[in-house]
Amino acid sequence: MKLRERIIEEILLSSALVTIIITVGIIWVLFSESFSFFQEVSLFDFFTDTQWTPLFTNKHFGILPLLTGTLLTTIIAIAVALPIGLTIAVYLNEYAHKEFRTWVKPLLEVLAAVPTVIYGFFALTVVTPFLQLFIPGMSGFNALSAGIVMGIMIIPFISSLSEDALYAVPKSLREAAFGLGSTRFQTAFRVLVPAASSGITASVILALSRAIGETMIVAIAAGQQPRLTANPLVPIETITAFIVQVSLGDVPHGSLEYKTIFAAGLTLFLFTFALNNISFWINKKYRQQYE
Amino acid sequence: MNNATWNRAVDKSFKYFGIACTFLGLILLGIFMVNIFTEGAQRISWQFLTSLPSRLPARAGILTAWTGSLWIFTLTGLIAIPLGISASIWLEEYGKKNPLAQFLEINISNLAGVPSIIYGILGLQIFGRMMNLENSLLAGSFTLALLILPIIIVATREAIRAVPGTIREASYALGASKWQTIWNQVLPASFSSILTGIILALARAVGETAPLIVIGALAYVPFVAQTPMDEFTVLPIQIFNWVSRPQAGFLINAAAGSLVLLCFVFFMNGVAILLRRRAQRNLKW
User: Fold this and answer.
1) Are B91 and B64 part of one and the same domain?
2) Which of A205, A243, B156, B254 lies at a CB distance of 3.0 to 4.6 Å from B88, suitable for a disulfide?
């Protein structure tokens, strides 16, 4: 009986250890292939060259155009999701009936459950033609509509987590504000939001990291032309869209072109890893404050 | 207008602004659903569901795509569910406060934040090339299983944590061993919450596109996969392929394919929400 219990525990433990193997696997794969990439392309060129043309005969390996493309769509997405998500969080926390809240929260989370390939389809065939009515010169592939649709997708990340943060603010603060004659609006934006600011920041950073890693929306709607620009109306390419582009083509295994997806992937991984950990760190610090 | 009335007006208008924002996303989603429904519904027919892909939009179907998605759904579940539940049991019931468990917890939250396309790169290198599974169903399922593992673990741990300690203590008092307590008390009590998490995770796996493209899943597969070692395509990849073609006929196909995929994902989410409601109602200890 004792032995059986021990064997079961070992099996359970080894399942838990699989998660460490995954992390080690990701880091090992990205670093080992990137290492051989950087033996042929210097790090200096990688970060300073302003062109990214690994699939052309005249090859340039500057990650900057892909980085700016990624940042551009991400900034647009956050610009859409932050005001809407934060308003929803404040509304649900301060104004809405409790019943309405329990009913609308799962509905909002449906926004994050829709497959991203369908959002990409939406951006390309509905949002872009609609925007073109107002912005005549806009290209069929652009960062703007991809970013807007991505923003809609990440609304629930910001609204849910920010609402949790607002909810966690001690009741006494809210009551003190009401006691001084504040309206709900003043209480929310002058007391609760500042008090919950670290939780809200953490949620925004998490949404940011999600937007940076998002692939299908930008691969479908933002185009496949890496260019160093801040213009949201022309085709660009993000890191993730580039990886998709290479995967769809016939690039031979082991070639330098093939290795670019690992270097691009490593850049993406490091960015999201840093953002996620900043978010955890802020959240943890914030929790200690109120306990 | 004095200060107080002004403040009250701001307060009131924010209320309506809040309602508008809450429904904005849902309304946009609604508009899009109506849009793909009006375009796609005409294309949905028995012929569409049972035809192989084709160069001609009117003759193309999603047979290989939905059977591929079904294969992926099943295999991914078979790999990820036992692994995820066992890992969660260890973390919650055995490793509770030791440093290893804490390290694993940080590691798992980090894995949950890794972009899905990175899992594709991992799968390409480990399953595709090192284990020589190439672009088979098995390679795709392993990749997606790793992707949803952190999601399953987070949900399962929460479900197990919700079972009160008194249940465990009562079981020990009756002479049950640790494993007997887990198997006969803790798991049955948390079953519907665990199932909710698993369903949501599998819905996510079925909707994933990017990692499967990276491991080399094909858009054009002229046969239905028979074994886990076969090449495959899935619905999201088929939709992606149709979206990126210039002919209008393929856009209609993409709308119809999206409709099928959305129905499936919404059905899974609906079941999960109902299950969660039921679990919360029954879990008044």
Assistant:
1) yes
2) B156
- Cβ-nearest to B90 among A15, A209, A253: A15
For the segment A80-119, what is each residue's pLDDT rounded down to a tens digit?
A: 999 999 999 999 998 988 888 888 888 888 888 899 999 9
Does B19 share its domain with B80? Answer: no
Total of domains in chain B: 2
Topology adopted by domain A64-290: MetI-like fold (1.10.3720)
Chain A nearest CA to B56, separation (Å): 20
How many angstroms separate the Cα of B245 from the Cα of each of A119, A178, B159, B219, B253? 17, 58, 45, 12, 11
Q: pLDDT value at position B278?
A: 80
A-B CB pairs within 8 A amount to 243
Q: Per residue in A9-65, pLDDT tens? A: 999 999 999 999 999 999 999 999 999 999 988 888 888 888 888 888 788 888 999
Q: Would you call A19 and B87 a contact, using CB atoms and an 8 Å cutoff? A: yes
Residues B188 and B147 both lie in one domain:
yes
Residue B218 has pLDDT above 90, yes or no: no
What residues 144-203 of chain B have any CB closer than 8 A to a CB of chain A?
Answer: 146, 149-150, 153, 177-179, 200, 203
pLDDT tens for each residue of A66-79: 999 999 999 999 99
Q: Do B95 and A16 touch (CB under 8 A)?
A: yes
What average pLDDT does the structure give for chain B?
A: 89
Shortest CB distance from A12 goes to which of B36, B90, B254? B90
- CB-CB: which of B240, B262, B269 is closest to A216? B240
Residues B244 and B268 in one domain: yes
Q: What is the pLDDT of residues A203-237, one digit of tens each?
A: 999 899 999 999 999 999 998 888 888 889 999 99
Q: Which of chain B's residues have a Cβ under 8 Å away from the Cβ of A120?
A: 240, 243
Q: Is B195 left (phi over 0), alpha (psi -120 to 50) or beta?
A: alpha
Name which of A115, A108, A156 is nearest B26 in CA terms: A108
B201 and B137 housed in the same domain: yes
CB spacing of A19 vs B149 below 8 angstroms: yes
The whole domain housing B32 covers: 3-43
